[in-house]
Write a structure and sequence with these properties.
Length: about 220
């Protein structure tokens, strides 16, 4: 499953945060600084803040790739302290969740993802976090919890296929093959033939059909 945000989506989210944060900076210093000097201060401060956040996030990603848990936790704490409310902070918590998931520390992974659900202003981040929590529930065998979590969200069309695949997997884990088949069928309509997600989902869909045919033959 590839539920990471695309580079373009991340870029748009960061641009939005910089714009919003920039307005805050202008408001804070608008009384003390005016004219050309005020605009120059704004540009320099905004750029420096963005560069620092970007650099820290790069360090975070490196730590996650190297699976350096302690180092990643230290960087995440600094990100929370210095860049609270930024897209970089939210993405850092998603990265930390991945690190915990890779080490099968599901409880701590869920803690990170719940932070994203509570703090992210951008819907894309929230959708990714919700999907990953549901996936963890399935790994733990908590199939109904996964369905309940997904059922609470109104998801945009771009996320429909992934949500339906996860629902299908949850239903399949519960032994409800007909519900699983329906979910996979909906997902297939939104996926591109030839993609890994399409082929894998189709395989599960066809396996359910085969199981039903085998049962009919036996009876």
């Amino acid at each position: 499953m590839n539920d990471n945000l695309t580079d373009q989506q991340q870029a748009e989210i960061v641009k939005k945060w910089l714009k919003d944060n920039g307005l805050f900076i202008v408001a804070s210093f608008g009384i003390a600084i005016s004219g050309v000097f005020g605009m120059q201060y704004y540009k320099n401060s905004n750029l420096k803040q963005a560069e620092n956040a970007s650099r820290l996030y790069a360090d975070m990603e490196f730590s996650v790739r190297q699976k350096r848990l302690s180092q990643a936790q230290t960087i995440l704490q600094q990100m929370d302290n210095d860049f609270s409310g930024s897209a970089y902070q939210i993405q850092s918590h998603l990265s930390m969740a991945k690190l915990f998931m890779d080490s099968l520390d599901y409880d701590n992974a869920i803690t990170q993802l719940e932070f994203v659900l509570e703090q992210a202003d951008d819907e894309n981040f929230s959708m990714v976090a919700r999907q990953r929590i549901a996936r963890i529930y399935i790994e733990k065998g908590d199939f109904q919890d996964a369905l309940d979590l997904l059922g609470k969200a109104e998801f945009p069309e771009a996320f429909e296929a992934q949500f339906e695949i996860i629902k299908g997997d949850a239903y399949l884990g519960m032994g409800e093959e007909e519900n699983a088949r329906s979910a996979y069928e909906i997902a297939l309509k939104s996926l591109s033939p030839g993609s890994f997600a399409y082929d894998f989902t189709k395989m599960k869909f066809e396996q359910i059909n085969q199981n039903n045919e085998d049962e009919d033959t036996q009876t």
